[in-house]
Design goal:
Distance between the termini: 45 Å
Largest sheet: 6 strands, parallel
Bound molecules: adenosine monophosphate
Radius of gyration: 20 Å
Shape: globular
Strand content: 15-25%
Length: 293
């Protein structure tokens, strides 16, 4: 496994590796962008990339552009040594590990901004977040030029936003959406889970429980108003005294529009998405429901 910090060296290394491939059976380059502090969720993306590609590139970069001024950029967890060990074990070929100065050598004058679907959910609570995400993902895709890039549905809005960007800007890459990995007790894996106290960690289980409740609720209601489903999910979360709800929303996926009333037999894909703070730690989770089939 090679660990590369410079864009120029990454490009020449990839050129060299690609020229040695011959007639590749799989996609030549699979790319997994992350902010590090790797967990099983990240490793599942690497596994998907490993199965689909000849060369797997993992990036680890905590992107300052996607954090607001009052957010947790400074305390975002980092452990590069451990990350590199896990990446090597998972079969990564190249880790791209740039410094902030390599990615942003001067003031950022060009940004990529997707409108509409970025003004709801996390985009409403974190105003600069998605411009930061699309700008860094566009840069990383230009640098790595992968055939496939792997993203987790844990950040389902991010998958929708990045897919929209790739479509609108005719970027030559397949965006592959991968399922959410959870701890055995249901908590969605996240680098931020380490910040939870024992009691917060225990109460945070209400999130996955509320999404399970949503899945059961739609099985019992063939026709319903999205607002009623939202109310049912919210009621479960409010059972946890430490849960401080940022949002609970029911929207269509991937367009992220407010759904009309859901009717029996009319196909629709909905996302139940939530962001909830436990102490200083903001957690997100979601489930995607395919209805009417
Ligand atoms: P992050 O390092 O948090 O920016 O995440 C990097 C990638 O890993 C993103 O595409 C995330 O959606 C994905 N990811 C994070 N947590 C999970 C999880 N629990 N299951 C699946 N993918 C995840």
């Amino acid at each position: 496994m090679e660990v590369i910090q410079s864009i120029a060296l990454l490009r020449s290394t990839l050129e060299q590796k690609k020229s040695g491939l011959g007639a590749a059976l799989k996609a030549p380059v699979g790319f997994v962008p992350t902010m590090g502090y790797l967990h099983e969720g990240h490793l599942s993306l690497i596994k998907a990339a490993r199965e689909a590609s000849e060369i797997v590139v993992l990036s680890i970069f905590v992107n300052p552009l996607q954090f607001g001024p009052t957010e947790d950029l400074d305390r975002y967890p980092r452990d590069t040594e451990r990350d590199l060990k896990l990446a090597e074990e998972a079969g990564v070929d190249i880790v791209f590990l740039p410094q902030v100065e390599e990615m942003y050598p001067g003031p950022v004058k060009t940004t990529v901004s997707v409108s509409g679907i970025t003004s709801v959910l996390c985009g409403a609570s974190r105003p600069v977040h998605f411009d930061g995400v699309t700008t860094v993902v566009a840069k990383l895709l230009n640098i790595v030029q992968p055939d496939k890039a792997f993203f987790g549905l844990k950040d389902a809005q991010q998958v929708a936003v990045v897919s929209q960007m790739v479509q609108d800007l005719n970027m030559n890459v397949d965006i592959v959406a991968c399922p959410i990995l959870r701890e055995e007790d249901g908590l969605a894996m996240s680098s931020r889970n380490v910040f939870l106290s024992e009691e917060e960690r225990r109460q945070a289980l209400v999130l996955s429980r509320s999404l399970k409740a949503a899945e059961a609720w739609v099985r019992e209601h063939v026709a319903f108003r999205a607002e009623d489903l939202r109310g049912a999910v919210k009621a479960v979360i409010e059972e946890a005294p430490l849960a401080d709800i940022d949002y609970v929303e029911v929207l269509t996926y991937p367009k992220l529009e407010r759904p009309e009333a859901v009717e029996a037999g009319v196909p629709v894909q909905l996302i139940v998405a939530l962001a909830v703070k436990f102490g200083a730690t903001r957690l997100i989770d979601n489930t995607i429901l395919t209805l009417g089939k």
